[in-house]
Amino acid sequence: MEDKWEIPRVAVAVDLVVLTIRAARLQVLLVERGIEPQVGKLALPGGFMASGQEDLDLAARRELQEETGLHAAQLHLEQLRTYGAPDRDPRERVITVAYLAVLPNLPDPVAGGDARNARWLPVEDLLDAPGQLAFDHDRILEDAVERARTRLEYTTLATAFCLPEFTVNDLRGVYEIVWGKPLDPRNFHRKVTGSDDFLVEVGMRTNKDGGRPAALYRAGAAKALHPPILRGSTTGRGADGTRSRA
Length: 246
Description:
Number of helices: 5
Helix content: 10-25%
CATH class of the largest domain: Alpha Beta
Oligomer: single chain
CATH topology of the largest domain: Nucleoside Triphosphate Pyrophosphohydrolase
Shape: elongated
Low-confidence stretches: 237-246
């Protein structure tokens, strides 16, 4: 007689890649694990989805607040992808749904829950030296950064890195920091101000950067960019003054 089939036991978790720009660098929020496995190792904030009526989005927001003290109300939050390798967690079979979150100039986090410490670290320092993060979080971080870079090309995600009112130079800084490449100021200004409902001029100017006062903008209602701003479509100057492709 054949064995009776049983529903496999699988735990569901959420992990968050929270990106911001601090000190002119793309940085990610990490926590220090306070429990086994891999206690003391850096990890993305996250945890298991609670039983009962909690859905994935609610679990992601709860874990962010519990482990870092940050509230997700003002975050740009989107599902990244699902990770389910059989050996990704030594405790049991765990499938995690990863999220990408973006907010401008996020404050210093306060650790809580299962995390002993929480802090910001530059993304490039982690991507250049993999193995610093617990579980498969290196891969999740790499996927999230590439998602952010790609979405800057085709969507208005860049404005989520900006304060409510910003200049075109502020916005260009977001692209240059996230892409890691210089952009030509004139070409960039023409593209972003010519894209339908990407930016809305607020009718005020600022000279916070010195020089001529610059117009202030806020994010428009558009979610997609037509045409897109492709990484290879705008030229800039490198540190040595030579032209480079962005």
